[in-house]
Structure formats: C-alpha cells, structure tokens
C-alpha cells in the first residue's frame, strides 16, 4: 500500500528538478511500535535509494516519482517503513534525517497530509488571457509564453519594469529592474507538460520612481500586437497605426513610435490570419474538403515545375446548379488586384438573378490580367458551365479578355460594358455632350431612335462616331444586339462585387477563398428566405417593373388585327404587338423579356394575364430554385479528413516581387473617371460630408 501511495503522490507532484541519487547498501528506518515508541534501526534494504535535497535541486527517483519539499542541503530524505495505528491503517512516513550524528532531529510527516496539500494545489485553475493583472502563488499557466505575456502586461499597467534573471525550459526567474526592490517571481514547469506554475511571488514594489521610463522596455511590438489582437477580429477594421499610438498612450501612458505600432498591427493580423506561406500549402486540403462538403463544386490549383502557385479556380456547386436552371445566360467577367503579401489578381464571373441581384458564378486567382491567365480562367469556366445556348459575355475592352472570349467561347456573343466605353469617350474627346448622346444611343430600343441620336453625335464630333463604329455597334448598342442581352448593359455586377470584397482582398489566399465561400453562404440563405416570403408570382424587382409599365399603358389605344396581334397607339406613336411571338416593334418586349406598356395594353384588351408573357427567369419560383441548394462550411482544419496524396501536395507562394513604395490599396481609376465631389446633407455645401461638417447651422 505504501508503494501505491508513493506512486500516486509522485504522479501529482508539482515541482521537478534535476536529481542526484546516492546508492548505499543500508538505510536507516524508523519503526513506530505503539507502546515502545520510535526506534532508529540500521537495516539493509535493496532497491531503496537515498536522495540528496538542497535549495536549488529536487530529487527524482528512477521511476520519475517526484515530491514537493524544500529541505536544507545537509539533510537527507529517507524512505521509511510502515507504522500502524489503532485503526489498523498503514501509512508511509517521510522524515528529515541528519545522518551526520545518527539521530532524528525532525518530526516525521505523514504522507497523507502531504498528498492532501498537493491535491488542493492541483485544483488551482489554469490562468489564461492577459486582461487580468492579478498574480499570486500557485497560479498555473498553460505555457511559459502565456506567463511572460501576463508579466509584461502587468508591468505596463502598473508602470514598472523588470528583468529576467534566468529563463530555461523548466524555470523562469524575474525580478524588478531596481536592484533595491524585492519584487520577484519564480515559476517552474509542471512535469512533462508545457504548463508553468508560480512557486514564489513577492508582490511589494519599493523601486524608485525615477526608474520608470517614458517608453516602457516591455512595450514591444509583439506585446502590443497581442493586446490589440481582438480589435482585428473579422475583416475591414480601420484601426490604423496612428490610432494604436494614441490608444496605447491613453491606456498605459506610454509613447511608442509609429514604426512599432505598424509592426504591432502586422503581428496582430498575422496571429489571426496565419502565415501567407502556410495559406498556400493548406489550399489543396481545403479544396478537397470543400468539394466533399458541397457536391458539384469544382476547384483547381495549378503550380509550376518548382511547385510554386500559378492559378486557382473555384465554382461552388450550388451556384452552378442554380445557373443551369434559373439564371439568365448573361455572364459578366472582370478582374481586380489583390493586396496581400504576394499580390495577384482576382478573376470574377457573375450574373444577375431574377430579382436583379448579383449572382456569383466562379472565382479565379492568377498573377495578372494577361493573355495566359484570362484564357486559363475562361477555359475553366467553360468546362464548368458546358455548352450554353444564347450565352452572352460582357466585359470591358481589355485586349486579353477579347482574345480569350473569342477563343474559348466561339459560339457566344461578346458585348462591351457601356460604362467603360463612355469613360473612354470622356478621356479621348473631352466633350460632355458626346458622352450624353452615347449613353442615350446605347440604351435606345428602336433602331430608328438609335440612328437619330447617333446622327447628332456624328455631327458634333465625327472622330468620336468613328471611334464607336470601330468598336462595333452591335457590341454596345442595345437596338443592334442580335442576342439576348436582357437589361444588362454594363459589368456593374462585377464591379459591385469587387467593392464588397474590398477588405477581403487584403487576406492571404486561403482566408480569401474562405471569405468568398462564406459570402455565398450568407447570400444563399438570405435570398432563399427572401424568395420564400414573396407572395407575388414575379420577383419583387420584376413585379415593380411590370407595375410601372402597367400604369403607363392605362391610356393606350388598342386596335386589334387578329386574335394575337394588334396595333397600339399613344401620343401619335404606334407599335405593333404580337402576343404569340412575344414581340413588339418598340423592341423593349423583345430585349427585356418583360411585357412593355404596349404589350400590357394588348393583354388587357384580350383579357390575357401579362404574367404569363414574362420570362421564366423573373418568376418567384425560378428565384427560389436559384438558391435552393445550400453551401456548407468546411469546418475546423483539425477535423479535416484528407487523403495523404492531397495533404502531401506542396504549393509554394508564387514568384512575386512587391514593388517599392507604399502598397497600393485603391484601384486605378478608369479613363475619364474623376473624383465625385461630395455634398453635405447638413449645410448643403460641397467638399465635405455631414460627419465632418463644421459650419454652424443658423
């Protein structure tokens, strides 16, 4: 029983130091004999060892049994026999034995008391976090670094400095920087764990005030980064280095440099987001789990011969399924720059759902917007979509996009963004009237209306008219479009998505991809609930468009031609409607695929529901189908089950060299795009907003 108690005691021991064994053939034992009292005997016991204890060393026997005691160096602890009490209980006795004179000078200590005391010590909770600056003996910390962090923050808050006198893997000794001050802390490692426990703590400070400096020696960028770490949780935090300087001065009374504040910010962001290099290496495992969690998802990673990252593609299965069943086949593509350590370009392909909302379709990452990267991205998009009838691709006039679209989608129609063409006109011809006429001509439905407006533009500036003709009228003019472009004239859906991802583009590649997935998950859930709450046959946007046209048609005069065709007159202008072919000579019904005012007047005359003439893409049923599938998260990385051939795949960061100077965070404006002057809603003046307004209100 004594050996079992000894083993249990030593397994719970708190203090562990280097041991020094003394082997001998005989040890002194103490026998408690009830009536006769203790007798000191010299007996031979094999397997017993006498351990030498002193202030700096603690014994460990060969079985790693440990005891928490602190005797002096001239005494020895001897393992002793058994004694019996009236209750017939046996217990092992430890005693301090001075072997120099052969007598016992200390009273024996029953090991049960020691075990109880240590059991109480083990009930001390593990301290975590640095918000509380309370320190006391027997506190247990998860690691030595956690304890050091606590001490550093305590020094900042209480405005003193200390120095580390000894720091090893098993011991930490710190004391006040003032040699006359008695404040000090001693902590030791607990067994083979990483935990550290405070064994000694003198809390009283007697240091002089002139020992305190304006810039505390412990206010390192690492410590400040740890203290502001919670501020940077999530994305989009605008806690700038100068804000950190002001906050540290206000909170701790310490003046730090801008450079230190910047490093603290980078360290805080790094501890939250992880290493950019590790982000690339984890990407294959993430893609595997993403595909397993979301059936139909397509991902691809391309590396060069040196295993360095080159391209990435992702299209979520739920988006692909919704596109094939319920989304208009008009795809806008564009690229935007990334702002993380290794830079790059984010490629986006997006559509519009039946409620005129952004519908992300696919994402890609490459080095830049060049011929090779755009061709690779569009080829992966083509493989994901398959052959789509009446596909219409819209982009700006980037030369690489035009080449790639004609090569990868030879059957599709390629239109250009009217906004970008208009901005180029502003830059090249410097005439606001030209831009206004171009906008009206591009959005005209009738060919006759287009010819009239474009003729005016040609008379004002023939060079501008020739420039537009060289682009190709059918690529930017709605009235000359031979394919179903619907009402999508610009790449605004992609530009809007770029704005949504403004802060996410600062993230490392893995966190960026996860943010894209998370954004789609939120949008799918929200819009599915929105679609389920709609009580109308059409979506809210389509229903609003139809109602406004219905109100316009109230005074239209209908002249029937047959059971499906009629002539509609209003203010001296007529239009011929064919309800069977869903067309009107005004071209609005043909291009938007929502009945125009003339067609609605004809429906009212023939007593036909105008809802039946709307495209299926604008129905609430189609909207619900677009978001019917769920997008699932990948979960915690520690729980991923990934095959070895995937986990062992090496993806190194790309070959990228950051340019000199301050990193670019704002996109380069398009040609002709100028800064808009803000107008204050409080005083009505220009050049500032309501928040920064300083003018008194009379």
Automatic annotation (TrEMBL):
Entries under SMART domains matching the protein: ZnF_PMZ
UniProt keywords, alphabetically: Metal-binding, Zinc, Zinc-finger
Disordered: annotated segments: 654-680
Domain called SWIM-type: residue spans: 575-607
Composition bias, Basic residues: 655-667
Pfam families found in the cross-reference section: DBD_Tnp_Mut, MULE, SWIM
Protein name in UniProt: SWIM-type domain-containing protein
Species in which this protein is naturally found: Vitis vinifera
């Amino acid at each position: 029983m004594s050996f079992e108690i000894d083993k249990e005691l030593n397994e719970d021991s708190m203090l562990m130091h280097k041991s020094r064994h003394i082997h001998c053939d005989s040890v002194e034992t103490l026998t408690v004999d009830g009536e006769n009292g203790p007798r000191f005997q010299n007996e031979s016991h094999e397997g017993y060892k006498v351990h030498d204890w002193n202030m700096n060393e603690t014994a460990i026997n060969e079985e790693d049994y440990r005891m928490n005691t602190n005797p002096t160096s001239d005494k020895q602890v001897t393992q002793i026999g058994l004694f019996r009490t009236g209750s017939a209980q046996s217990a092992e006795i430890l005693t301090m034995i001075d072997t120099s004179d052969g007598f016992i000078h200390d009273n024996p200590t029953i090991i049960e008391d020691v075990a109880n005391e240590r059991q109480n010590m083990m009930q001390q909770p593990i301290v975590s976090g640095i918000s509380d600056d309370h320190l006391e003996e027997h506190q247990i910390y998860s690691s030595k670094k956690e304890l050091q962090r606590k001490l550093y923050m305590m020094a900042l808050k209480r405005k003193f400095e200390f120095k580390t006198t000894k720091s090893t893997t098993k011991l930490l000794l710190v004391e006040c920087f003032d040699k006359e001050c008695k404040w000090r802390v001693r902590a030791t490692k607990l067994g083979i764990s990483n935990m550290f426990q405070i064994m000694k703590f003198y809390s009283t400070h007697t240091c002089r005030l002139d020992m305190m400096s304006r810039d505390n020696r412990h206010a390192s960028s690492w410590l400040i980064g740890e203290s502001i770490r919670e501020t940077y949780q999530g994305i989009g935090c605008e806690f700038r280095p100068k804000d950190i300087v002001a906050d540290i001065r206000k909170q701790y009374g310490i003046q730090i440099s801008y450079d230190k504040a910047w490093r603290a910010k980078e360290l805080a962001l790094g501890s939250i987001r992880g290493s950019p290099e590790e982000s690339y290496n984890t990407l294959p495992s993430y893609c595997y789990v993403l595909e397993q969690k979301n059936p139909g998802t397509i991902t691809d990673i391309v590396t060069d011969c040196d295993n360095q990252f080159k391209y990435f593609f992702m299209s979520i299965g739920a988006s692909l399924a919704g596109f094939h069943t319920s989304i208009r086949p008009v795809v806008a593509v564009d690229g935007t720059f990334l702002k993380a350590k290794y830079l790059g370009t984010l490629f986006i392909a997006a559509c519009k759902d039946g409620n005129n909302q952004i519908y992300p379709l696919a994402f890609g990452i490459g080095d830049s917007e060049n011929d090779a990267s755009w061709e690779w991205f569009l080829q992966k998009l083509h493989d994901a979509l398959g052959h789509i009838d009446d596909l219409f691709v819209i982009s700006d006039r980037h030369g690489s996009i035009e080449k790639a679209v004609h090569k990868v989608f030879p059957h599709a129609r390629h239109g250009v963004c009217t906004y970008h063409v208009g901005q180029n006109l502003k830059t090249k011809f410097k005439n606001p009237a030209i831009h206004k006429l171009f906008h009206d001509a591009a959005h005209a439905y009738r060919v006759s209306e287009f010819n009239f407006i474009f003729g005016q533009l040609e008379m004002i500036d023939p060079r501008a008219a020739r420039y537009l003709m060289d682009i190709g009228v059918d690529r930017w003019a709605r009235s000359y479009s031979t394919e179903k472009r619907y009402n999508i004239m610009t790449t605004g859906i992609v530009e809007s998505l770029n704005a949504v991802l403004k802060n996410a583009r600062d993230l490392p590649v893995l966190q960026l991809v996860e943010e894209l997935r998370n954004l789609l998950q939120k949008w799918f859930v929200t819009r599915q609930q929105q679609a389920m709450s709609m009580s109308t046959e059409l979506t809210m946007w389509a229903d609003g468009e139809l109602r406004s046209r219905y109100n316009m048609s109230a005074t239209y005069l209908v002249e029937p031609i047959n059971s499906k065709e009629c002539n509609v007159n209003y203010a001296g202008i007529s239009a011929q409607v064919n309800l069977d072919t869903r067309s009107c000579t005004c071209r609005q019904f043909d291009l938007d695929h929502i009945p125009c005012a003339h067609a609605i007047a004809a429906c009212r005359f023939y007593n036909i529901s105008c809802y039946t003439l709307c495209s299926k893409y604008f129905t609430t049923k189609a909207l619900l189908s677009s978001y019917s599938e769920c997008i699932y998260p990948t979960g915690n990385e520690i729980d991923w089950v990934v095959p070895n051939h995937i986990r062992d795949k090496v993806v190194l960061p790309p070959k990228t060299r950051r340019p000199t100077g301050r990193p670019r965070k704002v996109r380069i404006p398009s040609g002709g795009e100028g800064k808009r002057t803000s107008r204050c809603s409080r005083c009505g003046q220009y050049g500032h907003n309501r928040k920064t307004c300083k003018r008194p209100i009379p």
